[in-house]
Design brief:
- The chain is of the alpha+beta class.
- It contains four helices and six strands, in the order ααααββββββ.
- Strands 1-4-5 form a three-stranded antiparallel β-sheet. A three-stranded mixed β-sheet has the order 2-6-3, with no helix packed on it.
- The protein is rod-shaped.
- The relative contact order is 0.07.
């Protein structure tokens, strides 16, 4: 009996010693100095070096492509700007030409009453027994004057009887009974001739319209 008790006591002490030893080992492991390992930078492989070079080259190529696109866009803008300027120049030249054509319009318009007087004088001479030489002289002056006007782009607006009335060309002074049914609403007489200056109406023809 005493022997068994002694054995149990020995076993208990041995367990205590083992636990104490384990606790000591844990404490030593916990307080053990940490070993610092030196980190070495990896050396890139040849494939990685080549890939990096290709990526760099591609980036540069992309920049060149972008610059080329920008240059093309600027060139297109320049072409458009030049075309706009050329159109502006042509339009300005056209307007200048039209301005020069109309510059003497008022002067020519003021001369037209003289033409009217010549025409009236010729009509009177035809109805009298005046000398043919007088008539011939007036006709020569009239023709010369008309040639001068024609030189500057003036030409008469013809309105023979039966012409359709056109408000863009004619000014109706009055209405009169038409001598024929087909002349109703049409010009039956011209009181004052109209004239063009180049392709524009300088003076409307004053006419009588049949009713």
């Amino acid at each position: 009996m005493a022997k068994d008790k002694k054995k149990q006591q020995d076993n208990f002490e041995e367990q205590l010693n083992q636990q104490a030893h384990q606790q000591q080992e844990k404490h030593e492991e916990h307080n053990a100095p940490v070993e610092v390992q030196e980190i070495e930078e990896p050396v890139p492989s040849p494939e990685e070096v080549v890939q990096e070079a290709e990526d760099h080259a591609q980036a540069q190529a992309d920049k060149i492509t972008a610059l080329q696109a920008e240059v093309a866009e600027l060139k297109d803008k320049y072409v458009r700007l030049y075309a706009d300027f050329d159109n502006f120049r042509k339009r300005t030249n056209k307007e200048k030409t039209e301005f020069l054509q109309q510059a003497n319009a008022q002067l020519i318009k003021d001369l037209l009453p003289i033409v009217d007087d010549f025409e009236r004088a010729l009509q009177v001479i035809e109805q009298t027994e005046s000398s043919d030489k007088i008539k011939e002289g007036i006709e020569l002056i009239y023709k010369k004057f008309m040639r001068t006007l024609e030189k500057y782009g003036v030409k008469p607006l013809e309105t023979p009887a039966g012409t359709e009335f056109n408000a863009d060309l004619h000014e109706a002074i009055t209405q009169a009974p038409a001598p024929h049914e087909e002349l109703k609403g049409k010009i039956i007489d011209t009181i004052e001739k109209g004239y063009y200056l180049h392709d524009k109406v300088l003076r409307f023809a004053k006419v009588v319209v049949g009713s």
